[in-house]
User: Fold these one by one.
Assistant:
Number 1:
Amino acid sequence: MAASPFEVLQKVPLLASIPSAELAPLAQLTRERRYAKGSMILMQGEPGDALYLIADGQVKVVLVGEDGREVILSVLGPGSFFGEMSLLDDEPRSAHVVAMSETLLLQLRREDFQARLRNSPEVAIGLMRELSRRLRRADDTIGSLALRDVHGRIAHLLLAMAEEEDGRQITRRLTHATLAQMIGASRETVSRAMRTLVTTGVIKVSRKDITLLQPDALRAIVDRG
Ligand code: CMP
């Protein structure tokens, strides 16, 4: 059976400080939204009127160039949130957000999100912590794009994604095309580099996940590249 909005909110780290008695009324303010794989959830440049919490599925935050090329800024999964930036600074949506799989979201209207921030300093602090983490990652990516070659960028990305899990495993479903769009390289270059990492025993790739067999070897590539 699908989780209720209350059960979904219980698993959102941003809301962990809210007592259950207050979480139930908050859950009632949300609306469920379902998106098919590939559908556009938010459009860059449009005004923002809601925050979204991911109940199930995976989304990508993307910028699209005039020639149609995509840069992926982030991939977000269950328990994460997006759409907060427009609500905080009253600017248009900063990027497109697209469903990478069938995705179930809980939508919270601007007024309800802002009221919650005013009433819960812990939630406001949690939000700042997450924004700081995202800025740190963005800084890291800018450094990687400017300072590393493609091998260094791939090694850095694999280590960063594994770090978000147990340090060794990446269970997110990511195609070579997606990896390429995350590091500003061609799909072919990424496939070649991944093949080399597999044949040299640095990583193991299965249909379900990527395992870092030799994280130190990846660190050495990052330091070199
Ligand atoms: P908003 O600008 O309202 O709409 C697009 C959303 O994408 C934005 O809010 C954030 O939630 C999310 N987003 C934008 N840039 C990043 C990033 N670098 N990392 C993670 N999420 C982002």
Number 2:
Amino acid sequence: MAKIIDGKKIAAKVRADIKERAATFASETGVVPGLAVIIVGEDPASKVYVRNKHRACVEAGYRSDIYEMSADTTEAELLTKIEELKADTGIHGILVQLPLPSHLDEKAVLEAIPPEKDVDAFHVVNTGKIMLGDYSFLPCTPAGVMKMLEYENIDISGKECVIVGRSNIVGKPMAMLLLHANGTVTVCHSRTKNLSEVTRRADILVVAIGKADFITGDMVKPGAVVIDVGMNRRDDGRLTGDVDFDSVEPVASAITPVPGGVGPMTITILLENTLTAAKESIGK
Ligand code: NDP
């Protein structure tokens, strides 16, 4: 039986610590961390994510501004909004909720956010810094995974770490963080041959592909730590991960559930990054 890694519990502890540090910082400097989130269009999943971010900010005592823009917003209008927020000294983090409607150039929009307010760490400058291991903003989801491993005292050094998925927001930065922590890292993707042979080598298996229940027990080495980043909606509306929990849980030594695993950690790191941005904005 695997240990269930409780993301909600870990996130609550980390958020309490962030809240305390943010309050101390505010009382010493008069600066309250501020996050602005822009959402374009009506995507229901995005609306839920934005609401959760807003709630987390309010609970942490942050300023939280939400800008809801219509689905037919032009790129020029969106860039103007980003310019306004760039100039707002009370806003330390700017986040544009993805995905954007297809007529908007995601890359151009993300590059318009100044690196010092890019709390999602998607700007090319921050991506480059992550590669070099010299960064202030943590990539939210991968850093959330690292925090969970730290809380569970799971040693990474020298371990076989296999990541399934190579997206710019999860798989690639995850590989970098595990590498910086001295893991031996393999990244798999849709062209990987004999995937289950590779996943069965993993001491630490991180899965981020966006396919419900894809990783099954026979693909996992007995005693592995399995981190499920996936968030997929079943036909009945329930959330499920990329890992088939029922068949993997008896094989693994530790596993994250979905929901209640990686998800709550991602927003926690966003709070941490916003506090970092606020501190750096006044040279602290
Ligand atoms: P992307 O769609 O951007 O990337 C998916 C990756 O999985 C690609 O690299 C793709 O390979 C790979 N892949 C797809 N099918 C297979 C397959 N059959 N075998 C091996 N690899 C495969 O997804 P994201 O990284 O953005 O997200 C992944 C999942 O994580 C989603 O469910 C998403 O909702 C969730 N997520 C959860 C977050 C959280 O906070 N918990 C945050 C962000 C994402 P290729 O490159 O070859 O196409």
Number 3:
Amino acid sequence: MIVRDMLYIDGGWVKPDGSGTIEVLHSATEEALGSVPSGSAADAERAVEAAARAFDGWAGTSVDERSKYLTRIQEGLQERMADIANVIAAEVGMPIHLANLIQAGLPMVDIGSMPQVLDGFPFEERVGNSLVVREPVGVVAAITPWNYPLHQVAAKVGPALAAGCTVVLKPASEAPMSAFILAEIIDEVGLPPGVFNLVSGPGRVVGEVLASHPQVDMISFTGSTEAGRRIGELASRTVKRVALELGGKSANILLEDADLSRAVPGGLNACLLNSGQTCSALTRMIVPRSRLDEVEALAVSAVTEFVVGDPFADGTRIGPLVSKAQQERVRSYIVKGVEEGATLIAGGPEQPEGLERGYYVKPTIFSRVTNGMTIAQEEIFGPVLSIIPVDSEEEAIAVANDSIYGLAGGVSSADPEHAKAVARRLRTGQVEINGGSFNPMAPFGGYKQSGNGRELGRFGLEEFLEVKAMQM
Ligand code: NDP
């Protein structure tokens, strides 16, 4: 049992205002993994005040000084990699070998890349008779989800600290443990008091205080579109800057000349990674109707490779989902898909055989889906792929763009130039061409209701900066 009974505020571990706790469950055993404090409105206030007091000092540090701190935080993350991967594999259900690589590996890049981004960043430039300077936006509140819990924290905390902002972090209640490890690392590194603060607690209490607080200058949120809307409304009352990284229903277009033997298994993987609990998952595979039989056969064959099981067992490719609520939600979408007339070609709503406990869902593939169906429109956040046949490239693009979301996408073709031309027509923030791999330095974020703002690399740093013009 991992019992955390303190919050990290103003440079030290402090007792929370109340005595409430949030129980964190193991996704594979359904047993208690530990608990964290259920912080209160007063705890959130205390953290914001500490961050506000620390702002002037931290904003006044040199780029070199901030780079040194960030490098030391990255080194701390490296030392704690195994702890981080283990706890996230248990909380979220990602198989341990992938959790090591992604859940523990990516945060190191998110933070470790910042000194490189800062090096030579144009904080000042001349525009005619003006000196234009970029300054930190102020106190940042970061509210993060559970699916890539430390990556999403690091993608906010890294650039915010690099910019010279101070931070209050509220991690997701389902997967808060790695944020406490980060706070321990930051404490060891000796960041000045108040520069980083951690308050766990319910989104509706701690999150809403942060989103409304007049001393918070910016709110950076990743999570559901519904919570994003609420945060945007609350933040608008004090005209804060709001960065939102929300849901997706991303389309993967396989063009007529695509190499299906690569594109179908690759596309399936881009849907099923982390049991489909990925905002940029490619959940709609749009394929030429003339090649539908081939696509179906390849998908059914590829899905057998996705062995479902304990995230800590050798050979597991898909672990459980994060929670009972999430498992039930995903299963209800599968039932809905069948009811609405999609053809179930793999998986289904039942518990996978041999796994009595754990929030498992079978990797599930629907074919002959039409884009108006619920499973083609709503974010399921589970291991469910919808194959949508179309009759032309124009129709493929129209279907891909027929979504309230615009986070990611994919295009496969034997001709990369042709794929690029199609990619330019997708209204999304990211597009993989022929399975191009995730780039942690490239801007990440959405069009339409997938949010606003960009994270990671130079674009991620720019989110946390204000611009001032001084006329000479
Ligand atoms: P939420 O959006 O509710 O949670 C994300 C974060 O926001 C958590 O820290 C949460 O706190 C906090 N939060 C929730 N409500 C508020 C509020 N009113 N004010 C301030 N903060 C708030 O996601 P869920 O965990 O409920 O997941 C539901 C669905 O959201 C998923 O099925 C999926 O479709 C989508 N989702 C999308 C993600 C993405 O990356 N695009 C990530 C996670 C979920 P707390 O944990 O305490 O509730």
